Amino acid sequence: MERDLVIIGGGPAGLAAAIEAKKNGIDDILILERDKRLGGILQQCIHNGFGLHVFKEQLTGPEYAQRFIDEVEALGIDYKLETMVLHLSKDKRITALNPKDGLIEIKAKAIILAMGCRERTRGALNIPGSRPAGIFTAGSAQRFVNMEGYMVGKKVVILGSGDIGLIMARRMTLEGAEVKMVVEIMPYSTGLKRNIVQCLEDFDIPLLFNHTVTKIHGKHRVEGVTIARVNENKRPIEGTEKFVECDTLLLSVGLIPENELSREADIDINPITNGAYVSELMETSVEGIFACGNVVHVHDLVDYVTMESYLAGYGAAKYIKGERIKWEKIFKTIAMKGIRYVVPNFICPQNIREEVNFYMRVNDVYKNVYLVVRDKKGVIYKIKKNHVSPGEMERIKLSKEILQRVDEELVFELKEVEE
Amino acid sequence: MTKYMTCINCPLGCQLQVDIDGEIKVKGNKCKKGEDYAKNEITNPTRIITTTVKVKDGDRPLLSVKTDREVPKNKIFDIMKEINKVEAKAPIYIGDIIIENVLGTGANVVATSRVEKIKD
Amino acid sequence: MFDVIIVGAGIVGVSIARELSRYDLKCLVIEKSSDIANGSTKANSGILHAGYDAKEGTLKAKFNVLGSQMYEEICKELDVPYKRNGSLVLAFDDEDTKQIETLYERGLKNGVKELSIIDKNTLLSLEPNLQENVVGALYAKTAAIVSPFELAIALAENANENGVEFMLNTKVDKIYKEKDHFVIETNKGAFKSNYIVNAAGLFSDEINDMLGGEKFRIIPRRGEYCLFDKSSGNLVTRTIFQPPSKKGKGILVAPTVHGNLFVGPNAREIDIRDDVSTSREGIEEIIRGANRSVKNLNLRDIITSFAGVRATPSTGDFVINIPTKNAVNAAGIESPGLTAAPAIAPYVVSLLENQGLKLYKKANFINKRKNTKLFINMTEDEKRNALSVNSLYGRIICRCEHITEGDIVNAIKRPLGARTVDGVKKRVRAGMGRCQGGFCMPRVVEILSRELNVPMTEILKSEEGSYILTGRTK
Fold first, then answer.
1. ipTM
2. What distances in angstroms separate CA A328 from CA A281, A324, A346, A349, A402, one per listed residue?
3. Reported confidence tier of residue A387, pLDDT bands at 50, 70, 90
4. How distant is the Cα of B18 from the closest Cα of chain C, in angstroms?
5. What domains appear along chain C, each with residue ranges and CATH number?
């Protein structure tokens, strides 16, 4: 089968990309979604708080997803459900599989990667102890509770204060479980402030910073965990160990972009984000393959995923129509002092629509700093921030006009505010 | 009496000190929103509840729901009990009212996802 | 009344069971765990040793070399992965060089073929990711790797297809003689048998005591491992050993048959025999050890760590003897036990025969298993055929390993099929990949519930008591 545009993943990123590509004149679009319905992980995120930027209102995950699903349907965009992409090649050939069609071979003119991310596991953390039942990633617990209607435990300890963990603390509490505590190895939370207040403080669930789980107990089912305070090197401090009785340990310790297909297609991956290096139009290092959403870098707001994905859809449409200017005059973005990474990584100013949103994360908590953008010649943009944290993504919008004048490279960094 | 809380209006997360002595005085806020937030939290804290209800004849076992407006925080668990009593019948569309005026709060419990009727 | 009852369904027990299934006999395997290969067989290095380690004249040496020669054929028959990848024992200094020369000599005496000592340049051209300070190595081309639990399950399935019965979740409490036969009392009732084989692994000394055999003890020694993602799978192609030293056997770095990489094990004596918990110090110890052998070990690629317990006998050698009339011990089968198992099996059968067990070859012995291929391993044509018969092959459940619903249903429906989430994982690798079941575990629970027709809340991770769900939300 031949297609103009194939989008791998029918979550918020894939849906928005499809809609924008269609609106930009691409009719032959196919979305490949591995689950039984479109919407991706939003379908199990039944809490509200989505859509403040895009729709100026608070929606639940399924409601947010449905708006895009309805639009995809209305635009007549083609999709296949329960379809898993098995292989992706550099020359844009896809092998996929589903129960209805069996093996599917597709040659696409352009591809948008929108596979999202997966959760880090106990193994990745190397938490010592036994290996009983009762250890869940927060997301798989969320699936059991919200989609299947099963409780995963009665007395719960949550490791990691990522948003899914915080959300699950409230969810488990509402459904009758006792959430004993949330343990966070960092001195700050990686979750959103409002989640800490509304998911933990509302229910008097303690949040322990600078603590981690040092051992899991229980032969067949979790019987408890040992927690301990950690030092500045994140190593447990002897003598601070405490046993906490519980039957369940939920892990909310980070997300990893799912780039196995991207690697197979020889796409360059940024070791810091674990996602592809992308251009101003979200194009990867392989021509005609675009990427957007959590497969590029892990977002904390779906609204930003949507905006980024609109751009990818627009970019892919330009590419298919032959209007994407080949990278002639390009410059790089560079994350320096205090900034962990910036997306996008390459800018070809001629391709910019009106502006570019630069998304970035800082590497620590800072108070009273300037977020500075500069090129070889000097400072281009500067904004004062009272508070920045690795848990909350920063966004800077720069216009095409400004970016056209950039000399060689665009550096993003933090600068102390002089009193 | 003095209470401490974190303002959630923006990522800044101002640490608020709220003195309640007949009149409510808020300190630590960097903008007006912080003061409003604190006053509301003291006098009448409210929240949206999001949860699920059982589904009959649906293509999935659960329907996600929310209260269509904020409800008093101290009624959360009572409302959960009410929600857990009901069973919705497929097909259900987003916005369908599942419980009207739950516990007299003025809030309806409404569907936030679509559940198709199972075909057999 | 059974002709033979085997206690223990680890690699030794099931190898003996399959050997016995060649004959017209009524046999039963009793296993206290919920599945085949849930003890030492589940968590070990999966290495088929060439046979230069054990002292000449020991049972270890004899059965190691023999077993190593038998495996390729067995794995082919049973359609389980086998890879002759070779092994290297590294030398870092003169003392190590003497060590590997000793091993070389011993290997020759033990009858190991294709053994050689190679110099630094040859070594580094074979394995470029080794540390630069290596000076040479003992190279054993006959060393191989297998997946020990898949192998054990295949042997058990095949034995079962040939008539051997299995009782799982069945713990032996007491054994006594009644007239000329044994009575074995368990939590699932009493079983009678004319002959008994003790292949109880970590608990084989307890069974030996019940049989009244000459005393020996099992000293449980735990070994911890780290498993790395397939993206680290090419770090080495051969199994990399360190020279044995006063400090112990050294940490190995090895590929697995499925293309992952593992490092480990250390060795720690423990109090509780089946305590397979890991420790921070232990994991750090094996990582340190591995870094002595290889460079570029990417710790971010670790997908899980685990521990296994070796059944080390107090005698120093395998305990294969006759504890009492009409019984055979196959006990204390520590490393190289996996390698030795197929050679131990016919020997144990001969010991039974010597005591009067009548062996008549079955005319209809089936030496192959049917329908074992995973979708991912099929050829394009096989895939299309499989899909046309069963659309469940079109639904990927485990995204990391590309395991389909068809594969999982197969694993449940096979002889001695999976009954637990770990059972599925051991048979078809669902949940074995980099996300460690994060995505597929809920789906696997659902499929088990549907296929076994039991509520989701009754699906276990592994042993009794390892429940996953605590009830319904509504």
1. 0.93
2. 14, 11, 11, 10, 18
3. confident
4. 38
5. 83-143+220-307 (3.30.9.10), 375-458 (1.10.10)
